[in-house]
Amino acid sequence: MKRKSIVFFTGAGVSAESGLQTFRESKDGLWNNYKIEDVCTPQAWLKNPSLVLDFYNLRREQCKAAKPNKAHELIALLEQFYNVVVVTQNVDDLHERAGSSKIIHLHGELMKSRSTIDSKLIYKCTESIHLNDKCQKGSQLRPHIVWFGEMLEDSKIDEAIRYVMECDICVIIGTSLQVYPANEIPSYVTEKCQLILIDPNSVSHSLGSKRVKVLQQTAIGGMEELFRNLI
Ligand code: APR
Questions:
Q1: What is the pTM (predicted TM-score) of this model?
Q2: Which of 27, 189, 194, 225 is most buried, with most CB under 10 Å away?
Q3: CATH classification code of 37-64+108-145
């Protein structure tokens, strides 16, 4: 019998219980402590590259210190029973470290750097990036992150939409669904698809409320419940 397929569409909340901050929560959100325009735009990079590098160097260190939590682990474990694809807005590598094998990173990856003159030159990056760290063509390295004002890779969006359109179950975890175009991807589910949203807070979305089953729990609690129901 053909295995059923599940797409997990994840955001910062899936890594919150690993100790990584989300972006938009009232006092703890990262965007309450930094201004997006200072650290996360092409203009910020031109104006003050050291500040941008420091911001991402710190986040890389925090990511390295964090461990995948049970929600990441249960998502990976479900590969034994389902065809699982993770579509994530997160730039951390906790899904990888938990053992998930098919992950689409829509917004880039903290553990990679890339050339500023040739975006195809991408390198593994486990340590800080400094000014004057260069790619093989001699240009400054930057974090491999999609900043505000930059385009997501079309091929990644297309691939994510294809998986969402084909899946039997789509589980949204820990995202405020505020950032375009990623937030539109789950709306491509078909009628046959069971749509589940796990978040401890209420999330405003335009997914057609009747079809969405909401588990108002943290990522770990919600995934434990879902896992019991799926296995
Ligand atoms: N478990 C599950 N969800 C949680 C938890 C938890 N323990 N704690 C918080 N959340 C939820 C919040 O209620 C919120 O809905 O996680 C969501 C986090 O939302 P955001 O901070 O907006 O993060 P996200 O949606 O991933 O942001 C999207 O914005 O700035 C950018 O590029 C960045 O990829 C990011 C994008």
A1: 0.96
A2: 189
A3: 3.30.1600.10
Q: Which fold has domain 1-20+66-107+149-231?
A: Rossmann fold (3.40.50)
126 lines ligand 1 (CB under 6 A): no
Residues of the chain with pLDDT under 70: 26, 209-210
Q: Is 17 in the pocket of ligand 1 (CB under 6 A)?
A: yes
66 lines ligand 1 (CB under 6 A): no
The domain spans of the chain are: 1-20+66-107+149-231, 37-64+108-145
69: number of Cβ within 10 Å? 21
Q: How much distance in Å is there from the Cα of 31 to the middle of ligand 1?
A: 11
For residue 107, indicate whether it is catalytic.
yes
pLDDT of amino acid 31: 77
What element of type H or E holds 196?
strand 194-198
CA 183 to CA 149: how far, in whole Å?
A: 16
Q: How far is the CA of 91 from the centre of ligand 1 (A)?
A: 12
